[in-house]
Design a protein that fits this description.
InterPro entries: AAA+_ATPase, ABC_transporter-like_ATP-bd, ABC_transporter-like_CS, ABC_transporter_ATP-binding, P-loop_NTPase. This is ATP-binding cassette domain-containing protein. One of its GO terms (molecular function) is ATP hydrolysis activity. Helices cover about 30% and strands about 25% of the residues. With about 300 residues, it is of the alpha/beta class. Helix 7 packs across helix 10. The protein is globular and about 70 Å long. About 40% of the residues are buried. The structure holds adenosine-5'-triphosphate. Adenosine-5'-triphosphate binds next to strand 2 and helix 1.
Length: about 300
């Protein structure tokens, strides 16, 4: 195992940040830690990398994390501000200088898609470009194990895809990657396995598709109608069931060939709607099923039915 944790606990005063987490991550895996703000993701990354002292046992590359070879590790913290009055190239070169051996700075910049911005001051880059520079600093020593705490937060959709491609390529080349995210699409697209963290506990773990199949529930249709209360009444009278969701009207258990029946039921009752969206359940639904909370793109936890 490249990374392993057994019954890891960490509290800050009264706040229990980690409440007995165990996990094992193998070489070449991309493992995603998912959870909303406050779930314990950053504390777990800190425990696994030796920057906080938890109870329980942690092993990184077979050692106490504090003794693991820094040359083999890359860590992108959530909050990371390189010196602003350096250019992108100088920032990456500065971090490269901290290692006995480092990669070519120009190549590393190309890898993160910063071909034209190498000579721009860090403080003059866009939010997404800054994050790419930060990712580049974690790649410059060609690490075997990478910890990326919310690597794509603030990056535009294309930039996000670029970073995913980069992480994929690193894992293909044998690197082990632990990534935290509250973007479910990111977790589904990128990760071989994910761990769902809630209140400092790992509530489920597995390949995204397997978790969705086991806990995600049935396909559903989301309806956008001006008068969604009326739409709900009409559908309830026709024996449709609903996914608990305070923000949207979501009809549960609708196979693809049954979407037309939902539309007809509404139309026959004179209910106007401007959208019917059929979708398979995703990791967001899994999280909701298992914790009663949504993660959401902003990462802010929300109790369903709590508004
Ligand atoms: N240094 C600290 N001192 C006090 N409390 C802390 C500290 N670090 C984390 N916590 C608390 O521990 C809990 C878990 O925080 P953590 O940052 O690990 O969550 P997270 O899932 O990474 O959230 P986010 O997505 O916002 O980073 C939170 O309640 C947080 O307030």
């Amino acid at each position: 195992m490249v990374i392993s944790a057994s019954d890891v606990r960490r509290s800050y005063g009264e706040t229990v940040a980690l409440d007995g987490v165990s996990l094992d991550i193998d070489a070449g895996e991309i493992y995603g830690l998912i959870g909303p703000n406050g779930a314990g993701k950053t504390t777990l990354v800190r425990a696994l990398t030796g920057t906080t002292d938890p109870e329980g046992e942690v092993r990184l590359l077979g050692e106490d994390p504090k003794r693991a070879d820094p040359q083999r590790l890359g860590l992108l913290p959530q909050e990371f501000s390189p010196p602003a009055r350096l250019t992108a190239r100088e920032v990456v070169s500065y971090y490269g200088g901290l290692y006995d051996e480092s990669r070519d700075v120009g190549e590393t910049l190309v890898d993160v898609g910063l071909t034209d911005s190498g000579n721009t001051y860090y403080e003059d880059l866009s939010g997404g470009q800054k994050r790419r520079v930060c990712v580049a600093t974690t790649l410059v020593n060609d690490p075997d194990v990478l910890f990326l705490d919310e690597p794509t937060t603030g990056i535009d959709p294309q930039g996000r895809r670029d970073v995913w491609g980069l992480i994929d390529a690193l894992a293909d080349a044998g690197a082990t990657v632990l990534v935290t995210t509250h973007y479910m699409e990111e977790a589904e697209r990128l990760c071989d396995r994910v761990g769902l963290l809630a209140g400092g506990r790992l509530v489920a773990e597995g390949p995204p598709a397997a978790l969705v199949a086991e806990h995600g529930g049935r396909p559903r249709v989301e309806i956008r109608a001006d008068d969604s209360d009326h739409a709900r009444e009409v559908l309830a009278a026709a024996d449709y069931a609903f996914v608990p969701d305070e923000r949207r009207l979501v009809v549960d258990d609708v196979a693809p060939d049954e979407v037309g029946d939902v539309a007809t039921t509404l139309t026959d009752a004179g209910v106007a709607y401007d959208g019917l969206l059929w979708r398979q359940p995703d990791l967001e639904e899994v999280y909701l099923q298992l914790t009663g909370q949504t993660v959401g793109a902003s990462g802010t936890p929300r109790e369903v039915g709590d508004e």
